[in-house]
UniProtKB/TrEMBL annotation, chain A:
One of its GO terms (molecular function) is transmembrane transporter activity. One of its GO terms (cellular component) is plasma membrane. Belongs to the ABC transporter superfamily. Macrolide exporter (TC 3.A.1.122) family. It comes from Paraglaciecola chathamensis S18K6. SUPFAM superfamilies: P-loop containing nucleoside triphosphate hydrolases (SSF52540). Residues 2-233 form the ABC transporter domain. This is ABC transporter related. Keywords: ATP-binding, Nucleotide-binding, Transport. Pfam families: ABC_tran.
TrEMBL record, chain B:
It comes from Paraglaciecola chathamensis S18K6. GO terms for molecular function: ATP binding; transmembrane transporter activity. It is a multi-pass membrane protein. Residues 314-425 form the ABC3 transporter permease C-terminal domain. It is found in: Cell membrane. One of its GO terms (cellular component) is plasma membrane. This is ABC transporter ATP-binding protein. The keyword Translocase does not apply. InterPro entries: ABC3_permease_C (IPR003838), MacB_PCD (IPR025857), Macrolide_Exporter_MacB (IPR050250).
């Protein structure tokens, strides 16, 4: 379970302070497929980055699977990110010099799996996204849709509890977008919690739940939205 | 995990071969130049007898002109007269004492069927050999009786023994030289003190002599005065013994004293000796005896000249410039890795894992640069040796110098190379992925 309570995040430059998140509160339950929509600059990507421990927050409380995130050091945050969260980025973010096998291998290396465990997981996850026969291909030899599938395979290889997707179909044509969306739904049905940021209302409607972010706050929701009433320190 | 980092490092280096090679060459140039200079400076400034350098003392007595010091402002001459050399050696007031001078003469190895040759010789006292730890391959130096009786005995250098006796044990064999027959009592092993602190008349790095014979034979055979000869007073006649009994200086005088007490006693002896000589009309200047140990003597003689020291600092600066250039090249390369670093962090790598990963690549480049640099240094030193023949034996790659310079290069490369990695790791991963 992912719980955010009154999270605040401010970006400060020499001339301006931007409140990217203000009193942002949300609860995401096990197995949810949550779509986060909102206009550009509304704070939805910041929310995703905070949720994925890629960004710190300034105020409020955030617990991930019962663990209070505030105060964790770099090593603990990295470990938590590695074990519990998978990422899918709009621009795929594959390492261009590594082949598909080695790209999917990256998070598993930091997890400490041995060689045979890694190999099994890599092959399984690439097969799951339909790229089991292209292990030695470089990302540049694949289409955009296939690259995003590799990114999904990389995110899934470590069996994360949460899959965070930032505009996963943003760089894809509609056919490829549909196929990626179908893959995400299949992954969700197998028990992985998915939080997807998207501009595309059609895609958002395919999620179990939707929230709309405006000015750094959850301003509207569809589906069984749950707002946390309180987060107890005993959850830590 | 380390194996993974090595794989990543090798693959990264292979992907940017030209860039990596340029970085390595930049480091190699700096290391090569620095190693060559450091090796020269280290060899020149080394104390060749450090284990007993505090027990060996150069004796200086001021027998010079009352109106003008031998060496400005008020230093005694570096050499002593024949009279003082013999008096002090024969007085045996130190644990060991040795007076010596360079000379030369013809060797006629007719018995061996060889053509005559001119040999560089050293007349010296028997204590010369044990004092300076001179190694023997056969036999030993001459004894007290041979010294007192001016026996015709010689010690040969290894090269001379090879030349005359084909390298076999020649102890007991005879050698015709200076128009007389000498008996070989010892053959030296390889011996080349560098710097040749006991006698720098022909330069601090000159070759050792071919033949050694007792000091008294200088007078017997009226051997020429090699090295530096200085006089402040006219010699009374052209006769050879007039020179020997003049105030002309030509002899190196060294003593071995075991501790401070012996040194104090010997100093007192020198004071008494000079005072006694003053009563004979010698030593017109105020008392000005000096005892310098080997380290002090090398410093006094400025064996490492100032221009070489300047060259040393220039080479260190050149190495630093090369390291800074290598760091710039590494920085440019690692700058392109910011988004990969962000991605790896997003996928679970912590700060120290990222630092370790890139350290392996940087250390590898630094080490390769270092090894290339040492190869350059070897070629460079061979070039220096061929240009300056006298420095041939002096120029040997010093392991301490090599390891120090490589360590400096690796540490410098790591520090310089990790700055961009560190700065790439500082922002939140989200920012990096955006880049």
């Amino acid at each position: 379970m992912l719980t955010m309570n009154n999270i605040g995040k401010v970006f400060t430059t020499d001339v301006v302070q931007t409140h990217a998140l203000r009193d942002f509160s949300l609860q995401v339950n096990e197995g949810d497929f949550l779509a986060v929509t909102g206009t550009s600059g509304s704070g939805k990507t910041t929310f995703l980055n905070v949720a994925g421990l890629l960004e710190t927050f300034d105020s409020g409380q955030y617990t991930l699977d019962g663990q209070d995130i505030q105060g964790l050091n770099d090593r603990a945050r990295s470990q938590l990110r590695n074990e519990k969260i998978g990422f899918i980025f709009q621009s795929f973010n594959l390492i261009p010099d590594l082949n598909l096998f080695d790209n999917v291998d990256v998070p598993l290396r930091y997890r400490g799996f041995n060689a045979s465990q890694r190999k099994e997981r890599i092959i399984n996850s690439l097969e799951r996204v339909g790229l089991g026969k292209r292990l030695k291909h470089l990302p540049s030899q694949l289409s955009g849709g296939q690259q995003q599938r590799v990114a999904i395979a990389r995110a899934l290889a470590g069996s994360p509890r949460f899959l965070l997707a930032d505009e996963p179909t943003g760089n894809l044509d509609s056919d490829m977008a549909k196929s990626v969306m179908a893959l995400l739904q299949e992954i969700n049905q197998s028990g992985t919690t998915i939080i997807m940021v998207t501009h595309d209302k059609t895609l958002a409607e395919q999620a179990q739940r939707q929230i709309i972010v405006r000015d750094g706050k959850v301003c509207d929701s569809t589906g069984p939205i749950t707002r946390p009433e309180s987060v107890s320190a005993t959850n830590v | 995990m380390f194996k993974y980092y090595v794989q990543l490092a090798l693959s990264s280096i292979m992907r940017s071969k030209v860039h990596s090679l340029l970085t390595m060459l930049t480091i190699a140039l700096g290391i090569g130049a620095c190693t060559i200079t450091l090796t020269l400076v280290s060899s020149m400034s080394a104390n060749p007898i450090s284990h007993k350098s505090e027990q060996l003392f150069r004796v200086q007595l001021d027998n010079w002109d009352p109106n003008q010091a031998a060496i400005s402002p008020d230093l005694p001459p570096e050499f002593v007269t024949w009279t003082d050399a013999n008096n002090i050696v024969n007085a045996k007031q130190a644990k060991r004492q040795s007076a010596s001078a360079i000379t030369w003469g013809m060797v006629n190895p007719t018995e061996q069927g060889l053509t005559p040759f001119l040999a560089l010789m050293r007349v010296t006292s028997k204590d010369f050999f044990p004092m300076f730890d001179v190694p023997f391959i056969y036999g030993a130096g001459w004894d007290e009786s041979a010294e007192q009786n001016n026996d015709y005995v010689v010690v040969l250098s290894k090269e001379t023994n090879q030349r005359v006796f084909n390298g076999v044990n020649s102890v007991g064999k005879t050698l015709t030289m200076l128009g007389a027959t000498f008996t070989v009592v010892g053959v030296l092993d390889d011996w080349h003190m560098s710097p040749k602190f006991y006698d720098m008349s022909y330069g601090a790095f000159s070759a050792p002599e071919d033949i050694y014979l007792p000091l008294g034979l200088k007078a017997v055979f009226e051997l020429p005065h090699g090295g530096i000869t200085s006089c402040w007073k006219p010699i009374e006649s052209q006769r050879y013994d007039a020179f020997l009994h003049s105030e002309c200086i030509n002899f190196q005088l060294w003593v071995e004293l075991e501790d401070g007490e012996q040194k104090a006693q010997f100093n007192q002896y020198l004071t008494n000796y000079v005072t006694q000589q003053k009563t004979l009309g010698r030593f017109p200047r105020p008392l000005n005896n000096r005892l310098l140990d080997v380290t002090q003597w090398l410093e006094y003689k400025q064996v490492v000249k100032q221009d070489i020291q300047v060259m040393f600092w220039l080479s260190v600066m050149f190495l630093l410039v090369c390291l800074i250039n290598a760091a710039s090249l590494l920085s440019a390369k690692l700058h392109t890795k910011h988004s990969e670093i962000g991605l790896r962090r997003a996928l679970g790598a912590n700060f120290s894992q990222i630092i370790l990963q890139y350290s392996v690549e940087i250390v590898f480049i630094g080490l390769c640069g270092g090894i290339l640099g040492v190869l350059l240094a070897i070629f460079g030193l061979q070039g220096v040796a061929s240009l300056y023949a006298g420095y041939g034996q002096l120029i040997e790659l010093d392991l301490t110098v090599v390891t120090s310079v490589i360590a400096l290069a690796v540490v410098g490369t790591i520090i310089a190379g990790l700055i961009p990695v560190y700065s790439a790791c500082r922002p939140a991963p989200a920012m990096q992925i955006k880049q």
